Amino acid sequence: MDDEKNVDSRSSFLKIALLIILGFCIVIIVARYVTDENFRAEIDTNVFGKQVLESSLKTIEINSEEAPNIFAHGKFISILSKNKLKTYDEKGVLISEVDANVSVPIAHTSGNYMVLAEKNGDRLYLISGGSILWDTKVEGTISGVNVNDNGYVSAIIKNTIYKSVIILYDLSGNELFRRYVSSNYAICTDVSKDNKYLAVGEIDYSGTILKSYVKIISVDLAATDPKNSIIYTYESENGEIINNINYQDKDAAVCMFNTYIQKVMPTTDERIYDYSDDDLFVDVDLASGIAVIDKQSSGLFSYEYEMKIKSINSKAESLYILNSDLPKSMVASGKLIAFNLGNEVRIVNQSGWLEKKYTSSKQITNVVLGNDLAGIIYKNKIEIIEL
């Protein structure tokens, strides 16, 4: 009986020891995966299959002489050129070609939707897939547009008797309300994920020191009680210019200023991030968080680079190490971030893990990113990465 107990005890000890060793090995592998670029590349290519081969991608031919404007939305890529909007699916197949009276576009995409307008023009289009869901003409000229995941569109109008007019439309193109701004200039807008709030970024140039404001408007009250529809106002520090608003989670408007990022909600606000001199790229167009690429000194006149993804709620940070690779650009959309390294594109998720890595034999011009695909843009073609 004692011998059986000793055998069982040794067996349990061995199992525990093996689990400890296994856990220790996993920690070492994960740590090396995060910090060692060569090891990470080998694992991503040979184990996870994240390496995308240039020869395997579907291609859309373009003519750079026509100065095409290229957009990604959902699982589609749209190309605007010569007042024609051509839309392709994830296989590079042309699914529609429609007229769009736009030569110098301003656009915004979210989920499956894209809002498109002529810069300083008067025509507005909402697009999903290859279809124009609706279009409308406004009085004045359009200076800004925005669409949320549900197809609600906000537009900023100028050149009227007011400094700015903001109009909100629902998915069907019905005008829900308009707000007249007589004292400030509206710069950016966004509609919350549940369609309950409209955040408006405004700048006051009238004083000796300019100031920005973020005003949270209740959509319900704007239609029934306009005078009391502004339920919260955030006033920036002196000299700050607001340049972007993105609603994250349900009701958190993440607002970018010159030197910091502020989270503004219906009843409160909170500082999220202060820029440093080492920050190269900052983007708030994520589902939940902000992405920052910064540089760290690694010696005399040499730097290494990393991307931080900072949660707007927990303040937790995820890291993606770039080592000595300096990105040329970064774009965020939903739960993904893509950055162009010249001859390479990497797509990383909000947790800091690589989703896709693409290496090219030619110089990459730009990258567009949707929820379900990325478009790698060259002078004469677009290559499609399915996500």
Polypeptide structure, described:
The protein has 387 residues and is mainly β. It contains three helices and 33 strands. It has helices at residues 2-35, 37-48, 219-224; strands at residues 51-52, 58-61, 69-73, 76-81, 84-88, 94-99, 105-110, 113-118, 123-128, 131-137, 141-147, 153-158, 164-169, 175-181, 185-191, 197-204, 211-218, 230-235, 244-248, 252-256, 260-264, 269-274, 279-283, 290-299, 302-310, 317-323, 329-333, 336-340, 344-349, 354-359, 366-369, 373-377, 381-386. The strands form eight sheets. The protein has a five-stranded mixed beta sheet. The protein has a four-stranded antiparallel beta sheet with strand order 2-33-32-31, with no helix packed on it. Strand 16 (197-204) and strand 17 (211-218) form a beta hairpin. Helix 1 (2-35) crosses helix 2 (37-48). The longest helix is centred in the N-terminal third of the chain and has 34 residues, at 2-35. The N and C termini lie far apart (59 Å). The mean pLDDT is 91.
